Amino acid sequence: MTAPSDKTRVLTGITTTGTPHLGNYVGAIKPAIAASQDPSVQSYYFLADLHALIKCPDPRRVQESRLEIAATWLALGLDTDNAIFYRQSDVPEIPELTWMLSCVCAKGLMNRAHAYKAAVAENEAAGNQDPDKGITMGLFGYPVLMAADILMFNAHKVPVGRDQIQHIEMARDIGGRFNHLYKGQYFTQPEAVVDEQVEVLGGLDGRKMSKSYDNTIPLFASEKKLQKLVRKIKTNSLEPGEPKDPASCTLFQIFSAFATADETEAMRGEYANGIGWGEAKNRVFELLNEQLREPRERYQGLMEDPGHIEQVLLQGAERARAEAAPFMDRLRQAAGLGRFV
Ligand code: TRP
Questions:
Q1: 234 and 317: one domain?
Q2: Residue 250 marked as a ligand binder
Q3: In ligand 1, which atom is closest to the CA atom of 167?
Q4: For residue 246, what are the domain limits?
Q5: Does any ligand 1 atom lie closer than 6 A to the CB of residue 54?
Q6: What is the count of structural domains for the chain?
Q7: Per-residue pLDDT tens for 28-46?
Q8: Residue 149: CB within 6 Å of ligand 1?
């Protein structure tokens, strides 16, 4: 048996503003659930619902998204005895640590954050007098909250998309600064893990499948809806009988993300033989539907039992806090906020 302290700690957060789609599944959820089954790893997966407030001031959407995302991970078989699965907002030590880190984090570091710079650039492009127009402290300090998420559990590895690498570097920077200032090895230096193998799935219009492009296929859309959406995937005007190129084809990419290697090769042959788009879409729908049917049923069952999900998440938060609370005590002490006696 490996003691928990010997295990590699892998941590990642999911911002709760959307409904999980096929791209999320292939790019993040599936590899995360697989990784959590490795006995040499302790995984921490959480709903980044405090982060959600930054982007989404719609309480109904945030609430719904939290439930949908939790139900999705559970329906897909996340083993919550192994992985610590919790809501960020159930761990009050995280916002507390965020404040402590804010007090050692250079403002200039935050000025250089991509998301903030993009918002400023947008204001400038729009000719706004104030470059900070509409930018909240939440957006500006986003990387500090994310650093607290990571440093709270001394994560070694943080699986993320490319766009998040800078945030992990900032977490290293901020953690290192705290260690230096308070003369101790409080925080481990986390490492971003960007899986080059994992595919970025195309969406209905061929661009990256993403909520911001409104081109997604929800993972647990009903059978009918799934079929309708698959039919909407953009193809070209080649007729049945004309050979088609799988390399540039979103439909083929989606197929191969779910198919076995043999099935993918067979489909490649069909493309060369000029399979019609209607037929190709039927095959994609059938493959997806076959694989998603069972988890979809589990998902629907879970969505009808929010009390169960609540229980699971509260248990996860309890485990998270069993680590976070004593660590936070140590950090308070380091900063001069310890008890008098
Ligand atoms: N910012 C991440 C994203 O948008 C979500 C996130 C929040 C996260 N806290 C995290 C990811 C901590 C990894 C570790 O994808």
A1: no
A2: no
A3: 1
A4: 220-300
A5: no
A6: 2
A7: 999 999 999 999 999 999 9
A8: yes
Is residue 256 a contact partner of residue 264, using CB atoms and an 8 Å limit?
A: yes
Using the atom order of ligand 1, give the atom closest to the CA of residue 149. 12
Q: Tell me the CA distances in angstroms from 194 to 28, 144, 165, one per residue in order.
A: 10, 20, 8
On whether both 264 and 163 belong to a single domain, the answer is no
Separation of alpha carbons 54 and 138, rounded Å: 6
Please write the tens of the pLDDT for every residue from 70-92: 999 999 999 999 999 999 999 99
Q: Does residue 24 have a known ligand-binding role?
A: yes
Probe ligand 1: pick from 9, 11, 15, 208, max atoms within 8 Å of CB? 15
323: tokens are: 């680590």
243: DSSP letter: -
pTM higher than the cut 0.70 = yes
Give burial (CB, 10 Å; 0-12/13-18/19+) of 329.
middle
Establish whether residue 164 lines the binding site of ligand 1, counting it when its CB lies within 6 angstroms of any ligand atom: yes
The closest residue, in CA terms, to atom 14 on ligand 1 is 12
3-state secondary structure of 259: coil
Q: How far is the centre of ligand 1, averaged over its atoms, from the C-alpha of 48 (Å)?
A: 7
Cβ proximity of 242 and 274 under 8 Å: yes
Q: Say if residue 162 carries a ligand binding annotation.
A: yes
For residue 50, give the nearest of 174, 145, 135, 119 by alpha carbon. 145
Kindly state whether residues 116 and 179 are assigned to the same domain: yes
